[in-house]
Amino acid sequence: MTVKIRKVGNSNTLTVPNTITPQAKEYDVFQGRDGMIIFMPKHKNPFLDEAFIRTHDWSQTEESGGTLIGEEIPLK
């Protein structure tokens, strides 16, 4: 399948064929060094989302599953 770039106002446009079903409404667009054009669905960054930050448990525990072998401090 081949598509052609067309000029619309000050932008170049690539048409998405009907055989491709978009998975998102917004996409980030990148161009690789080899000229490849990549469209990636835009996702929210959870670390910038106030609701996520307020409701997330920021404590972290480590699970080793074995005996201590150095100067580790065991969890109580």
Give the neighbour order of strands across the main sheet. 1-2
Structural class by helix and strand composition: mainly beta
Helical content stands at under 10%
Give the uncertain stretches in residue-range form. Answer: none
In short:
This protein is mainly beta and 76 residues long.
Could you please describe the fold and organization of this structure?
This protein is mainly beta. It is built from one helix and four strands, in the order ββββα. It has a two-stranded antiparallel sheet. Strands 3-4 form a two-stranded antiparallel ribbon. β3 (27-31) and β4 form a beta hairpin. The longest helix is centred in the C-terminal third of the chain and has 6 residues, at 50-55. It is elongated, with a radius of gyration of 23 Å.
Keywords:
mainly beta; 4 strands; two-stranded antiparallel sheet; 76 residues; 1 helix; two-stranded antiparallel ribbon
Layout of secondary structure:
Blueprint: E1 5-8, E2 11-14, E3 27-31, E4 37-41, H1 50-55
Antiparallel strand pairs: 1-2, 3-4
